[in-house]
């Protein structure tokens, strides 16, 4: 006798609820960086990239380690990045981490930026801090 499956409720597999959301969250990264080059615009401003340095803290007894990383700005971050980032700019970027081999066979890391926050190195005016 064949079972009527049209009215049957699907069985839920344990541990799979929201798996796509968790996987996406796992691939996100936030880093504080310093722009090592001026930003470069590509495809008439559709996307831009900058080479940056992340200074990895390794403890009190060891000096920090400079980690080179490429940052790719698209969609919601490209317009702001083009006007705000130049060589020496200190910024925080959030997005997905990617790993590639360059044309010369050298490995490099890239962040595909979804969020961008540029930090000012200038002290705030005295009138602004008094309020």
Give a quick precis of the structure.
The protein has about 130 residues and is an alpha+beta fold. Helix content is about 20%, strand content about 40%.
Order of strands in the sheet with most strands:
1-3-4-6-5
Query: What is the string of SSEs from the N terminus onward?
Result: HEEEEHEEH
* Terminal-residue CA separation: 80 Å
Helix residue percentage: 10-25%
As an assembly, this protein is single chain
| Number of beta strands | 6
- Category from helices, strands and their pairing: alpha+beta
Largest sheet: 5 strands, mixed, barrel
Average pLDDT over all residues: 78
- Estimated share of beta-strand residues: 35-45%
Global Rg: 22 Å
* Uncertain regions spanning at least 5 consecutive residues: 8-17
Shape: globular
Summed up, the helix count is 3
Structure description:
With 131 residues, the chain is an alpha+beta fold. It is built from three helices and six strands; from the N terminus they run H-E-E-E-E-H-E-E-H. The protein has a five-stranded mixed beta barrel with strand order 1-3-4-6-5. A hairpin with a 4-residue loop joins strand 2 (40-42) and strand 3 (47-56). It is globular, with a radius of gyration of 22 Å. The relative contact order is 0.18.
Task: Annotate the secondary structure layout.
Layout: H1 19-26, E1 28-35, E2 40-42, E3 47-56, E4 65-73, H2 75-84, E5 90-101, E6 107-119, H3 126-130
Parallel strand pairs: 4-6
Antiparallel strand pairs: 1-3, 1-5, 2-3, 3-4, 5-6
């Amino acid at each position: 006798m064949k079972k009527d499956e049209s009215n049957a409720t699907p069985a839920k597999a344990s541990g799979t609820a929201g798996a796509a959301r968790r996987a996406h969250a796992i691939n996100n990264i936030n880093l504080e960086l310093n722009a090592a080059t001026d930003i470069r615009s590509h495809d008439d401003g559709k996307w831009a990239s900058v080479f940056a340095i992340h200074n990895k803290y390794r403890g009190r007894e060891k000096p920090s380690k400079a980690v080179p990383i490429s940052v790719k700005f698209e969609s919601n971050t490209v317009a702001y990045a083009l006007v705000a980032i130049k060589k020496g700019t200190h910024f925080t970027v959030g997005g997905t981490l990617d790993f590639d081999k360059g044309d010369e066979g050298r490995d490099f890391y890239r962040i595909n930026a979804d969020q961008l926050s540029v930090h000012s190195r200038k002290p705030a005016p005295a009138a602004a801090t008094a309020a």
